[in-house]
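Late entry, evening session. Most of the bench is empty. Finally got around to the prediction I had been postponing all week. Sequence below, unchanged from the version circulated by S.P.
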Amino acid sequence: MNRRGPGLLGTVARTAVVAGTASAVGGRVRQHQQEKFAGQQAEQAAQAQAAQQPAPPAAPPADDTISRLERLAGLKSQGILTDEEFAAEKAKILSG
Protein backbone atom coordinates (compact mmCIF):
# COMPACT_ATOMS: atom_id res chain seq x y z
CA MET A 1 0.00 0.00 0.00
CA ASN A 2 1.33 3.46 -0.91
CA ARG A 3 0.66 6.13 1.77
CA ARG A 4 1.02 9.88 1.33
CA GLY A 5 0.31 11.19 4.81
CA PRO A 6 0.57 10.35 8.47
CA GLY A 7 -2.36 7.97 8.33
CA LEU A 8 -5.33 7.79 10.61
CA LEU A 9 -3.39 7.18 13.83
CA GLY A 10 -0.99 10.06 13.11
CA THR A 11 -3.87 12.41 12.33
CA VAL A 12 -5.68 11.44 15.55
CA ALA A 13 -2.49 11.93 17.58
CA ARG A 14 -1.83 15.34 16.03
CA THR A 15 -5.42 16.42 16.68
CA ALA A 16 -5.13 15.33 20.32
CA VAL A 17 -1.93 17.34 20.79
CA VAL A 18 -3.45 20.46 19.22
CA ALA A 19 -6.62 20.16 21.29
CA GLY A 20 -4.64 19.59 24.50
CA THR A 21 -2.43 22.59 23.85
CA ALA A 22 -5.42 24.81 23.10
CA SER A 23 -7.14 23.63 26.27
CA ALA A 24 -4.05 24.32 28.41
CA VAL A 25 -3.53 27.79 26.96
CA GLY A 26 -7.22 28.63 27.34
CA GLY A 27 -7.12 27.47 30.95
CA ARG A 28 -4.12 29.66 31.74
CA VAL A 29 -5.72 32.68 30.10
CA ARG A 30 -8.96 32.10 32.01
CA GLN A 31 -7.04 31.72 35.30
CA HIS A 32 -5.09 34.94 34.66
CA GLN A 33 -8.29 36.83 33.92
CA GLN A 34 -9.97 35.49 37.06
CA GLU A 35 -6.98 36.46 39.24
CA LYS A 36 -6.88 39.91 37.67
CA PHE A 37 -10.64 40.38 38.17
CA ALA A 38 -10.41 39.17 41.79
CA GLY A 39 -7.59 41.64 42.45
CA GLN A 40 -9.61 44.49 40.96
CA GLN A 41 -12.65 43.54 43.03
CA ALA A 42 -10.58 43.38 46.22
CA GLU A 43 -9.05 46.77 45.48
CA GLN A 44 -12.46 48.31 44.78
CA ALA A 45 -13.87 46.81 48.00
CA ALA A 46 -10.93 48.17 49.97
CA GLN A 47 -11.39 51.61 48.42
CA ALA A 48 -15.11 51.57 49.20
CA GLN A 49 -14.43 50.55 52.79
CA ALA A 50 -11.71 53.18 53.14
CA ALA A 51 -14.11 55.83 51.85
CA GLN A 52 -16.55 54.95 54.65
CA GLN A 53 -13.95 55.19 57.43
CA PRO A 54 -12.23 58.33 58.66
CA ALA A 55 -8.81 58.76 57.13
CA PRO A 56 -5.90 57.64 59.33
CA PRO A 57 -3.09 60.09 59.99
CA ALA A 58 -1.08 60.63 56.83
CA ALA A 59 2.22 58.78 56.56
CA PRO A 60 5.23 60.48 55.05
CA PRO A 61 4.68 60.69 51.27
CA ALA A 62 7.92 58.87 50.38
CA ASP A 63 6.91 55.80 52.41
CA ASP A 64 3.47 55.77 50.80
CA THR A 65 4.93 56.03 47.30
CA ILE A 66 7.42 53.25 47.98
CA SER A 67 4.80 50.96 49.48
CA ARG A 68 2.45 51.58 46.55
CA LEU A 69 5.25 50.85 44.06
CA GLU A 70 6.18 47.67 45.96
CA ARG A 71 2.56 46.52 45.96
CA LEU A 72 2.31 47.30 42.24
CA ALA A 73 5.52 45.35 41.54
CA GLY A 74 4.08 42.42 43.49
CA LEU A 75 0.95 42.41 41.34
CA LYS A 76 3.09 42.45 38.21
CA SER A 77 5.32 39.62 39.43
CA GLN A 78 2.22 37.53 40.18
CA GLY A 79 1.08 38.04 36.60
CA ILE A 80 -2.00 40.02 37.61
CA LEU A 81 -0.83 43.15 35.78
CA THR A 82 0.56 43.31 32.26
CA ASP A 83 3.66 45.36 31.46
CA GLU A 84 1.47 48.12 30.00
CA GLU A 85 -0.82 48.24 33.05
CA PHE A 86 2.20 48.27 35.35
CA ALA A 87 3.83 51.14 33.45
CA ALA A 88 0.61 53.19 33.46
CA GLU A 89 0.01 52.73 37.20
CA LYS A 90 3.66 53.41 38.00
CA ALA A 91 3.48 56.68 36.06
CA LYS A 92 0.36 57.70 38.02
CA ILE A 93 2.06 56.97 41.35
CA LEU A 94 5.24 58.82 40.47
CA SER A 95 3.41 61.85 39.07
CA GLY A 96 1.14 62.25 42.10
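Two things to note before I forget:
Residues 23 and 61 are 46 Å apart (CA to CA).
The chain has a mean pLDDT of 81.
Will write this up properly tomorrow.
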